[in-house]
Amino acid sequence: MQFQRGFYHSKVILIDDIMCDIGTANFDKRSCFLNSEMNCIVYDRTFIKDVEKELAVDLAESKPLNGDALSNMDVVRSAKESLASILSPFL
Q: Is the pLDDT confidence value at 29 over 80?
């Protein structure tokens, strides 16, 4: 899905309505050791239901992203992504 209202940087994992992992960390060394990012694991069912509702709103404001859209990237975007991949070790 592609979010339509700007940049989406959420990190949420919901497991069977009993556990929610939510926070800022990616699963990489930079997030955990350099940027001191962290996630919380929550077992509170009321909180989990609230997160599910917010995710449903976000998904409603997204559109499916298919292979055609990915293969038709413009040249400027491809150049930006190439530059970003070169610079990523320094970020």
A: no
